[in-house]
Amino acid sequence: MTTATSNPISDTSDREISTTRIFNAPRAVVWQAWTDPKHIEQWWGPVGFTTTTKKYDLKPGGEWLHVMHGPDGTDYRNDITFTDVVEPERLEWDHGPSPIFHSTVVFDEHENNKTKLTMRMVFQTAEERNRTAEKFGAVEGQQQTLNRLEEYLAKM
């Protein structure tokens, strides 16, 4: 009798930060808030942050170059290269320059015209994931960013 075991090569649980949230908005509206820079700059980032987009080209191979401005005045450069765009279902990108990770955001239709969103960041190593969580507060930051999105969607 053969027993199934997890494949350590494909198991990323020790290298990822993942959140699932249900938004009280249709998928098309959530997609628009996530993919239009004029909307993104209204909610992207943890509490107290603002975002300045320098370039936004939503297509595989396209870039989203932006700076997140922290409440203490620190600027955080973010270079994103989209690797997959399936409107209105999924976005994937590689993030750099540091930390380097791959993000996937899935937009699922949910009952009563709501949207179930799953955001997953996979780092190259568990150490890099832990360093990012500790140094940048990435776990709480992801929650705060989605809280800000929820507030913004209520105004759209």
In CATH, the topology is named Alpha-D-Glucose-1,6-Bisphosphate, Chain A, domain 4
Question: How much is the average pLDDT?
Answer: 93
Task: Give the CATH level 1 class.
Answer: Alpha Beta
Portion in strands: 35-45%
How many domains? The number is 1
Under the CATH scheme, the architecture is: 2-Layer Sandwich
Helix content: 25-40%
Q: What is the C-alpha radius of gyration, as a whole number of Å?
A: 16 Å
SSE pattern: EHHEEEEEEHH
Number of separate strands? 7
| Overall SS class | alpha+beta
Distance between the termini: 56 Å
Major sheet: 7 strands, antiparallel
What is the CATH H-level superfamily?
START domain
What's the helix count? 4
Widest sheet: strand order? 1-7-6-5-4-3-2
Shape: globular
**Which spans of ≥5 residues are poorly predicted at pLDDT below 50?**
1-8
Folded structure, characterized:
- The protein is of the alpha+beta class and 156 residues long.
- The chain has one domain (17-155): START domain (Alpha-D-Glucose-1,6-Bisphosphate, Chain A, domain 4, 2-Layer Sandwich).
- Helices cover 29% and strands 39% of the residues.
- The chain contains four helices and seven strands, in the order E-H-H-E-E-E-E-E-E-H-H.
- It has helices spanning 27-35, 37-43, 126-136, 138-155; strands at residues 16-23, 50-56, 63-69, 75-86, 90-96, 101-110, 114-123.
- A seven-stranded antiparallel beta sheet has the order 1-7-6-5-4-3-2.
- Helix 1 crosses helix 2 (37-43) and helix 3 crosses helix 4 (138-155).
- The protein is globular.
- The model is unreliable at 1-8 (pLDDT under 50).
